[in-house]
Amino acid sequence: MPELPEVEVVRRGLERWTAGRTVATVEALHPRAIRRHVAGPDDFASRLVGRTLGVAQRRGKYLWIPLGADEAVLGHLGMSGQLLIQPVGAPDETHLRVRVTFTDDGPELRFVDQRTFGGLSLEPLKDGVPAPIAHIARDPLDAEFQDAKFLAALRAKSTGVKRALLDQSLISGVGNIYADEALWRAKLHFERPGTSLTLPEAKRLLAAARAVMAEALEVGGTSFDSLYVNVNGESGYFSRSLNAYGQAGLPCGRCTTPITRVAFMNRSSYFCPRCQKAGGQKGIAQKAGARVPAARKKPVAQ
After folding, report:
1. Residues noted as catalytic
2. CB-based contacts of 74: which residues, under 8 Å, 6+ apart?
3. Model confidence over 204-221: pLDDT tens digits?
4. Please, are residues 23 and 54 in contact by the beta-carbon 8 Å criterion?
5. Which CATH number is 147-296 given?
6. Residue 236 to residues 12, 207, 216, 239: CA-CA distances in angstroms?
7. Domain 4-133, CATH number (from 3.20.190.10, 3.40.50.720, 3.90.228.20, 3.40.720.10)
8. Each residue of 264-297: pLDDT tens digit?
């Protein structure tokens, strides 16, 4: 599923190609792509025609295009969704779900989705954010992201730190790929409980998450196949820079120990068993119900 860098690349493309343009026609070619719009495809199309699109916005993995101050088109790419800008008359994509044309007769906007897990809907705005996603936290690249608040919440979590990174109510935009990459950079095991992290460790993890996503954004995100592309159909190439995710069996870039893959939340976690040791942590031992030897007890830094 596209994560923050990939969705931000698409948002920037939409900002360039759709802001200020007025909708001429809307074709909802597959009802599942509009399933989150409870009034149905016809209502979605009729309410969008004649509206002028604002500047595309993003929170975490969600995109929206304001239609004035009170309403917006909300989009989620799901596993395979694509928002493409195509010349009028270009051949239809096999999995074209929604087509939007404009009164200026310029390039049209197309929503393409092979697996139809994504979708579009019209939603009311709540303090400038679509109501269905108002609960989602800001992401670490957001200028208004509150580091201190996140660090305190992270260190209060008794669950594993990767599970906390994937909690979109705590921090948005981080998915499986960038969680593994951030944990590798921070030299932290994904099962470390948040409560076991010292403040310097938590700060190191946040800095790593911020850095890895910024670097991915610079090169268009991570593409493993043709499903994730930007609005011009181009793939990102951060996959060439991955140190942990998808690297099972390959040598760690720091210590040459083979990267390990294990099952995690119906997905996978990739980590270096030497650089990101699971054993020896007070929090992990307590989580497992084991007694921590007195000689290994150390005060936790504040």
Report:
1. 2-3, 61, 267
2. 36, 62, 63, 64, 120, 121, 122, 123, 130, 132, 133
3. 999 999 999 999 888 877
4. no
5. 1.10.8.50
6. 14, 22, 8, 8
7. 3.20.190.10
8. 988 899 999 999 998 544 444 444 343 333 333 3
